[in-house]
Design goal:
Blueprint (H helix, E strand, L loop, with lengths): L2 E6 L11 E8 L2 H13 L4 E4 L5 E3 L4 E8 L4 E5 L10 E6 L4 H10 L2 E2 L20 E2 L2 E2 L4 E8 L4 E6 L20 E12 L8 H11 L7 H14 L22 E3 H9 L8 E2 L9 E3 L2 H7 L7 E2 L2 E3 L7 E3 L9 H19 L8 E3 L3
Parallel strand pairs: 2-5, 3-5, 4-20
Antiparallel strand pairs: 1-2, 6-7, 7-13, 8-13, 9-10, 11-12, 11-13, 14-16, 15-16, 17-18, 18-19
Helix pairs in contact: 3-4
The protein binds flavin-adenine dinucleotide.
């Protein structure tokens, strides 16, 4: 096992912000994961699992413990056990360190439906179940069959079904009740050969029409291409040299509110807030998702807003960006100062506390 010392984390993240890891190990096998976690435990060190670094804000002081960088590789395919009344499905089995977009490419090449709208989300396979990645009408939880992980509590490998992962909007047991307990080593995605693409978002339908003209059913690949075009137009696709993608994607989650709360928000604004029904909550009452970007704009922040070296993307109000090169741009403190200013303004205006999406690493 090769342990690196004082390894700068900023270049390992899409934000390009943050100090060093006191120790860093790259894990290429499950055995590396066991060995590295034992090494950290014997020294009483905190452990942080790093994937593609696309959903992180690392503190300026860095992380005073062991960062375990997941580099397990490998993709394979098998038939899914048949389910009566359902079309035959295939399992795409991916190691946690694989680039998520390799899975997308594999599924598009074989015409397997289920993840075409998740094209262009950066990061690794291991990161996908953590916040149940989602975009343009799909969430990865709807295709996850099993997650294999090392359970630090029981010090054994476990296989969790989708139901055991506790998925909901941008949430799973991995980022909530069992945060820090599991190290994901592999994910099985259950995909549908020849299945129809998901076209529930008007933006996606419009982009497809712009790409290919109206009429006929688009292919999965055409949908993925349209999604990537939309993402790029919003600075939500990692394109080297594009200053608007030096971010962690959306900095805030879209709040989900009750009908009463929605009506109070509507009463406070000149135009009706955009809103999407999300189904009933545990209390069976209706719930609505309100775009955080709309709330932020209504609270007085526009695209391109700047506070020191931190800013709001010129192409999407929900992305906070590092306005400078890695190591010389924004500090984590500047990004958080901007985030706090925005959240306070939204709370003052609408009584909604925005929830941060990226994970904070190290003490801020
Ligand atoms: C431009 C841009 C656009 C984005 N668009 C979207 C979007 O549309 N939808 C969306 O949902 N997200 C989006 N994101 C956020 C991000 O890409 C996803 O959350 C991604 O899945 C994070 O994966 P990662 O490998 O980079 O994880 P990291 O950022 O490295 O880690 C994120 C969290 O997951 C944990 N983690 C990572 N790997 C493992 C593992 N193997 N085992 C256990 N824990 C692990 C980490 O400890 C950390 O808590 C976007 C980000 C960017 C920069």
């Amino acid at each position: 096992m090769h342990v690196e010392e004082n390894k700068l984390l900023a270049p390992l993240t899409t934000f390009g912000v943050g100090g060093p890891a006191r120790w860093l190990v790259e894990a290429a096998t499950e055995a590396d994961i066991v060995e590295a976690s034992t090494w950290a435990r014997e020294r009483g060190l905190p452990l942080f699992v790093l994937g593609g670094g696309s959903n992180l804000l690392v503190s300026d002081a860095g992380f005073d413990g062991l960062v375990l960088h997941i580099a397990l590789q490998g993709l394979s395919v098998r038939d899914a056990p048949p389910v009566p009344g359902q079309p035959p499905q295939r399992i795409l089995r991916a190691a946690a360190g694989e680039d998520w977009n390799n899975c997308i490419e594999q599924s598009l090449k074989a015409s397997w439906a289920g993840i075409e709208c998740l094209a262009g989300i950066p990061g690794t396979v291991g990161g996908t179940p953590v916040q149940n990645v989602g975009a343009y009408g799909q969430e990865v939880s709807s295709v996850i069959d099993r997650v294999r992980a090392f359970d630090l509590a029981g010090r054994a490998f476990v296989e969790l079904s989708a139901a055991e992962c506790g998925f909901s909007y941008r949430r799973s047991r991995f980022n909530s009740t069992d945060r820090g307990r599991f190290i994901v080593t592999r994910v099985d995605y259950r995909l549908t050969p020849g299945g129809a693409p998901t076209l529930s978002y008007p933006d996606v339908r419009r982009a497809i029409e712009a790409d290919r003209g109206a009429g006929g059913e688009p292919t999965l690949a055409e949908v993925a291409t349209a999604v990537r075009h939309i993402r790029q137009s919003k600075g939500m696709l990692i394109v080297p040299g594009d200053p608007d993608c030096r971010s962690a994607g959306s900095f805030f989650k879209n709040p989900i509110v009750s009908r009463d709360h929605f009506q109070r928000i509507a009463a406070l604004s000149a135009t009706e807030p955009p809103h999407f029904p999300t189904g009933a909550g545990l209390d069976h009452a209706e719930r609505f998702k309100i775009p955080a970007a709309w709330l932020i704009e209504q609270a007085g922040f526009a695209k391109g807003y700047r506070l020191g070296n931190a800013g709001i993307s010129k192409r999407h109000t929900l992305a906070l960006v590092n306005l400078g090169p890695t190591g010389f741009g924004a500090t984590a403190a500047e990004i958080l100062a901007l985030a706090n200013k925005i959240a306070a303004a939204v709370e003052n205006r609408f009584g909604i506390r925005l929830e941060r999406e990226p994970v904070l690493v190290g003490s801020q």
